[in-house]
UniProtKB/TrEMBL annotation:
The keyword Transmembrane does not apply. It comes from Enterobacter hormaechei. GO terms for cellular component: cytosol. It comes from the Bacteria. This is Dihydroxy-acid dehydratase.
Length: 91
């Protein structure tokens, strides 16, 4: 019983590597989402700050690409070979 409650403590949290939560962990490992995106419980109060920060980051990256012609802001440049190796290590 305690193991089950620890593995899946609330909605939006599952430790199996086959769920949307695991996809959040992988996008975090790739550098395509905010730190904590895959590990912060869906019902945690800090989740709101996480998505507000993500929105600010999206605007920042968009401005870097469109206003400063900075291609390093594109997902294809963020998700490097090293980032994919990091994600495979996580998985």
């Amino acid at each position: 019983d305690q193991l089950e409650r620890s593995a899946c403590p609330t909605c939006g949290s599952c430790s199996g590597m086959f769920t949307a939560n695991s996809m959040n962990c992988l996008t975090e490992a790739l550098g395509l989402s905010q730190p904590g995106n895959g590990s912060l419980l869906a019902t945690h109060a800090d989740r709101k700050q996480l998505f507000l920060n993500a929105g600010k980051r999206i605007v920042e990256l968009t401005k870097r690409y469109y206003e400063q012609d900075d291609a390093s802001a594109l997902p294809r440049n963020i998700a490097s070979k090293a980032a994919f190796e990091n994600a495979m290590t996580l998985d």
